[in-house]
Amino acid sequence: MYKSVIRPLFFSFDPEKIHHFTFSLIRFFHKIGFGSIFRSIYKVENPKLERELFGLKFPNPVGLAAGFDKDAKLYKELSNFGFGFIEIGTITPKPQPGNEKPRLFRLKEDAAIINRMGFNNGGVKEAVERLKSNCHPERSRRILIGGNIGKNKNTPNEEAVNDYIICFEALFDYVDYFVVNVSSPNTPNLRALQEKKPLTNLLQTLQDRNNEMSVRAESGTRKPILLKIAPDLTDEQLLDIIEIVATTKIDGVIATNTTISREGISSENKKEMGGLSGKPLTKRATEIIRFLSEKSNKAFPIIGVGGIHSAKDAVEKLEAGASLVQLYTGFIYEGPGLIQQINKALLKRT
């Protein structure tokens, strides 16, 4: 029903406007009691799907990637579609509107999306307020949350580490793991932070702060830190990433973010500036996962994201070396049934 009726209807409207409308629609259905119905339809619960990673127990290995619920406005409702974890963000210290509209484009012929959103979000303080209820001791169904953090557009790269620290400290008690985003192509000069020296400095600074805050935390434990990388890195740069992970002792890598490549794209919107996600990224993202896994001798966990539009795509990433997977564009094109399909396929393999 989703691909035959709902998707064609949604795709007849502006992508960003329908995104906000969909949020309102999902929130409305939950207010009138549909949450349990969605869970009964889409959620696959089985101990065999559980994964333990970074000291966390994931109910299943299929998560929602950052960018969909930027401001932590709908993570509770979205979890009812069967996701094992939700990643919010990218969150910046101060609120910012992002880039000028239009900034989100469908490439239907390629089952892809181009976005140049530019870290539009309400700032870290607003996100924290929304996340507090997830940490309430009386909440029976706590949702695993990842916090994807970045810098404000107007913050120069020389001062970027301060923005990441602000977000890290503010979110520390409210997320289960952190993702350092230096790979979005939509914030000027952000990707320059992927270079070896500034990236090592940034990650080491966050690790040092992590260790300091864990001493003061009630749990006494540090928070896992992951690095999200671009699919446009060369093999030499990927080898640098492996070395940086070993040096800074961060907990893992998310591979990959959106690409600036337009190779093999046929849609008219391919000329739009921004990061491309969806099916055209399937092969490259899997290649990077395999490269990192093999060259590092599986030294750290990898979360695979990029072009997952079927259970087969997800299985390929897991076989290439990923421990978990995330959806974004595939969720939009294939609908919530994709989460269930992946989890059922994984159960058949056990």
Question: What is this structure, in a nutshell?
Answer:
This protein is an alpha/beta fold and 350 residues long. The model has no long low-confidence stretch (mean pLDDT 96).
Q: What do these coordinates show?
A:
This protein has about 350 residues and is α/β, with parallel strands linked by helices. The chain has one domain: TIM Barrel. The protein is about 40% helix and about 15% strand. It is built from 12 helices and 13 strands. The chain has an 8-stranded parallel barrel, surrounded by 5 helices. A hairpin with a 4-residue loop joins strand 5 and strand 6. Helix 7 packs parallel to helix 8.
CATH superfamily: Aldolase class I
Give the % helix. 25-40%
- Looking at the structure, the CATH topology is TIM Barrel
The radius of gyration computed from the alpha-carbon positions, rounded to a whole number of angstroms, is 19 Å
Poorly predicted sequence stretches spanning 5 or more consecutive residues: none
Could you report the average pLDDT, rounded to the nearest whole number?
A: 96
What coarse outline follows from CA principal-axis ratios? globular
**Biggest sheet record:** 8 strands, parallel, barrel
Order of helices and strands: HHHEEEHEEEHEHEHEHEEHEHEHH
